[in-house]
Specification:
By secondary structure, this protein is an alpha+beta fold. The protein has one domain: Aminopeptidase (3-Layer(aba) Sandwich). The protein contains five helices and nine strands; from the N terminus they run βααβββαβββββαα. Strands 1, 2, 3, 4, 5, 6, 7, 8 and 9 form a nine-stranded mixed beta sheet that branches. A hairpin with a 4-residue loop joins strand 3 and strand 4. Helix 1 packs antiparallel against helix 2. The structure holds coenzyme A. Coenzyme A binds next to helix 1, strand 4 and helix 3.
C-alpha cells in the first residue's frame, strides 16, 4: 500500500476540536441518524477511566485524518478476581482516507504502546470486518461475557499477549464513560456547536442494529 507521509502522535488539547470534527465526518449517519461520537470523545477525555497516554492521532500534511482513544475497564472471573483491560474506542479515519491502512497503523501503534504500559487485553464493540485482521476474536472464543452468560456478537477481544485470558470464564464490566450518550439532549446541544449536517437513514444503520443486537449462543 502506498501511504502518504504520515505522523502518528499524541493528541493535544489544541487538537480537540479538529479531532471531534473528524469523528463527526467519520461517524455521521453511520450507525444511527447523526452521531454522538464527538460528544463521547469530549466527555471521555474528562472521565477517570480515560488513558491520555493512549490517545493518538494520525496526521498528514498538518491535517488530522485519524484518531484512536482507550479507557480502562474490568474483567472479573467466577472467583471475583479482577483484571484491568483496555476498552478501545472511538477509532475513526476521515472518509477520504479510509481503507488505505491508516486504521491498521493506529491500532498496531497503540497495541505496542499498550503492551509497554503493561496492558495485555483489548476489548471493544464493533463490526468484526474491521477487526478480525488485527487478531481480534469473538468474545465467545475467550469465554468473555456479560453477566448472565451473554456473548454479544459484536463484543471483540484481542489478546496482546497470547493466552493471558487462559480459558476461564470472565465477565466484562465496561466503564460507564459512554453512558453520557444516552442523554440525547446533551448530545444535540453539543452537536449544535458544530457546522450543520443533515441526519439521514442509511442501510448500514440496519446492519449496525443487527450486529449490536446479536448474541452468540453456541
Ligand atoms: C473502521 C475504520 C476505523 C478502519 O480504518 P481504515 O483505515 O479505513 O481501515 P484499514 O485500511 O486500516 O483496514 C483495516 C481492515 O479493514 C478491512 N478492510 C479494508 N478494506 C476493506 C473493504 N474494502 N471492505 C471490507 N473490509 C475492509 C481489512 O480487514 C483491513 O485489514 P487488512 O488490510 O489487514 O486486511 C475506518 O474505516 C472508519 O473510521 N470508519 C468509520 C468509523 C468506524 O466505523 N469506526 C469504528 C467503530 S467500531
Amino acid at each position: 500500500m502506498n501511504k502518504l507521509n504520515y505522523i502518528i502522535r499524541r493528541e493535544t488539547e489544541k487538537d480537540y476540536r479538529e479531532v471531534e470534527n473528524l469523528a463527526r465526518e467519520a461517524f455521521w449517519n453511520l450507525s444511527v441518524e447523526g452521531c454522538s461520537e464527538h460528544y463521547f470523545m469530549h466527555m471521555l477525555r474528562q472521565h477517570e477511566a480515560f488513558i491520555p497516554e493512549l490517545d493518538f492521532v494520525v496526521e498528514i500534511d498538518g491535517k488530522i485524518i485519524g484518531s484512536i482513544m482507550y479507557s480502562e475497564s474490568k474483567l472479573k472471573d467466577e472467583n471475583n478476581n479482577e483484571k484491568t483491560v483496555l476498552t478501545m474506542g472511538p477509532l475513526c479515519i476521515h472518509p477520504d482516507f479510509q481503507r488505505k491502512g491508516y486504521g491498521k497503523l493506529l491500532l498496531e501503534h497503540t497495541f505496542a504502546k499498550a503492551l509497554e504500559m503493561g496492558y495485555d487485553t483489548v476489548i471493544n464493540f464493533g463490526n468484526p470486518d474491521n477487526y478480525v485482521a488485527r487478531g481480534y476474536k469473538s468474545c465467545k472464543k475467550y469465554n468473555v461475557c456479560f453477566e448472565g452468560d451473554i456473548f454479544p456478537a459484536a463484543l471483540l477481544v484481542k489478546e496482546l499477549r497470547e493466552n493471558v485470558l487462559d480459558g476461564r470464564k470472565w465477565f466484562y464490566y465496561q466503564n460507564d464513560a459512554d453512558k453520557c450518550c444516552d442523554d440525547e439532549e446533551a448530545v444535540e446541544k453539543y452537536d449544535s456547536l458544530f457546522p450543520p449536517k443533515i441526519k439521514a437513514w442509511q442501510p448500514g444503520q440496519e446492519e449496525f442494529y443487527i450486529h449490536s443486537h446479536s448474541t452468540i449462543t453456541r
